[in-house]
Amino acid sequence: MQSESSSSILVKPAGVEKENPSPQPAEPILRGALVKLTDFGSDDVGYLSIPDQEPKGGVVLVPGKWGMSQGIKFLADRFSKEGYVALAVDLFNGIVPKDSSYAADLSRFVREDSALGVISAAVRFLHESPRFHTDKVGIVGWDLGGEYTFEAALTIKGIEAAIIYYGEVDTEKKKLAKLRVPLCYFYAEKDKTISKEKIIRFVNMLEEEKKPLAFYSFDTQEGFADPSSSNYDPTNAEAAWHISIDFLEKKFNSPKKEMGLLEKIIHSKD
Fold this sequence. Notes:
Elements: E1 33-36, E2 45-49, E3 57-62, H1 70-81, E4 84-89, H2 100-108, H3 112-128, E5 137-142, H4 144-155, E6 161-165, H5 173-176, E7 183-188, H6 196-208, E8 213-218, H7 234-252, E9 262-266
Parallel strand pairs: 3-4, 3-5, 5-6, 6-7, 7-8, 8-9
Antiparallel strand pairs: 1-2, 2-4
Helix pairs in contact: 3-4
């Protein structure tokens, strides 16, 4: 795929893949806490992490098939250390799967209306909670959570930017035409859950609709950015992390004048 931008970023491979690599060298010490979203339209709870300084904005984290894991809480804490009020939602009602089979079973039983309900409550929480002041709220999702992140970006008010890590995409033209917020999408070249042809069609359709999309392709497997996944790839995850932070910084602090800008960057071994 050709890029409108002449720049490209090369990322060195993380090394030989292991069958069951350790996601984290040590269990991180968490700084956040669980909060109820009852006052904002949901009976669910979320994991809230608040920065030490005046917040730059808020971020809703939508976990993938591994649910509200320690890895997602760790990422919420990383966002708060960057200056964002971070709130991770739970799509599995407190259940954290221990293996991929159980994770797949739980994923199949998530209802879209329920998922969007808890995401909407989280967005409201970040905008309306008297504990802090956040004018702008972004949303980030991984695989299954990426699917609901895209739906939320289409339907939920109060979202300023959306970031999707290797989630399923929609190529329905009428639906794509509804996108009004800047979107950043990270594609894993070795993702077996979605065809490259569909990804290309998705990117091209957004380009035709003149939607604001930043697209990044990594030569790795799906799950590469989730510390809970056996496919966790620290090198590529770190590269994507810095891109995500930069994306939020730019979208939260600049006027909406980039509609129609499509940035495609390929991350390769070469």
